[in-house]
Amino acid sequence: MTTADIRAARPSRWAKFLAVTGPGLVVMLADTDAGSVITAAQSGAQWGYRLLLLQVVLVPILCIVQELTVRLGIISGKGHGELIRDQYGAAWAWVSVGTLVLACVGALLSELSGLAGVGLLFGVPAWLTMIVVVGGLTLMAYTGSYLSVERIALAVGAFELVFLIVAWQANPDLRTVASETIDIPWRDTGYLYLVAANIGAVIMPWMVFYQQSAVIEKKLTIADLPAARWDTAVGAVVTQLIMAGVLIAAAATLGMSGRHESLETVQQIAQALTPFLGETAGRVLFALGITGSALVATIVVTLTAARTLGEVLGVKHSLEHSPREAPWFYGIYTAALVAGAVLVASGANLVALSVGVQVMNALLLPIVLGFLYLLARRLPPPYRLRGAYELVVALTIVATAGFGVYAALTGLRAS
User: Fold this and answer.
1) 365 with 359: CB under 8 angstroms?
2) Which domain holds residue 186?
3) Quick check: 68 and 284 in contact, CB under 8 A?
4) pTM for the model
5) Segment 124-143 mean pLDDT
6) Vertex 371, ends 203 and 318: CA angle to 5°?
7) What is the DSSP string of 265-276?
């Protein structure tokens, strides 16, 4: 075989990247879930562009956090809950899983409420929407492999990109964007509450658990680590572009009408955007974006809860096993979906719930990020946190968790 033949037989860098891509993009698309979209819309509605700079600042923070997750999964070959159990014992594993369950329950209710709200925009009752969603996602999990579920998640999550079209069509005034972006009211407790909500909307406990398990299920190796890091970085940029797009759309449309107000339902958010985008186009675009964000997040959240509980319980917890082989895994997955659907069908204030869930995520950050940092320091020497980068990671985690908790507590005291 000639040198040219050998080169032709080797996969290109792009081919390697595409083969590895998936876990990072899926978890980042899920990051821009229904609750995050609503938090971004609420931010734009109440504060114009004053929370836009925060969306940019959160990109490198998100990359740092999720890169540690990728590193832990590929090097250890263990899920996050399992790794905590092995390194620190079952008690600490259950503490960590407890924070995960809280975050997953809140997120699942938020996603399903978002889907129910979209159904109501078109006159579909919530109970019927829930039946379709639960039935479809149950069928997907019971009949698919990890790769098929990943492809479905990427396909439905791609609908979130319509929010970039919405932002463009909203035609924001660039001078207003520039002036309000640097006009930051740090002393306003209402502003700090939404700062905490946005931090909690970007760094969620279930993201850490999901991506660490996903790189294992995809059977990524150490050779795949560079491409997996790029997968995560690209996803971080995409998710924050979507968040910025939603915020810009809400700020531009409500700013044009002189209404910087609180939005209480999915219908109100849609109605705030549609007059400026066209009644039909605005409603359809908003519905597609929310549906994509809520569906991919529902898939990720339910799989994360089922996988992690399976890890700590020591039972089979993978989509590669059949329902007969992993009854606990599929049972938890199904029970979570059904219970969430029943609660949502009974009625809930989506916006208040969604923003509250993101604030709760901010309060849980010290536990989640603390374990992530400690575990990364126990990896084998070539991949262990060390030197200047360890200091950067430590300062980033302390600052993010500390400010998230401070802003959340300040906002809660004022509410």
Assistant:
1) no
2) 21-414
3) no
4) 0.83
5) 91
6) 75
7) SHHHHHHHHHHH
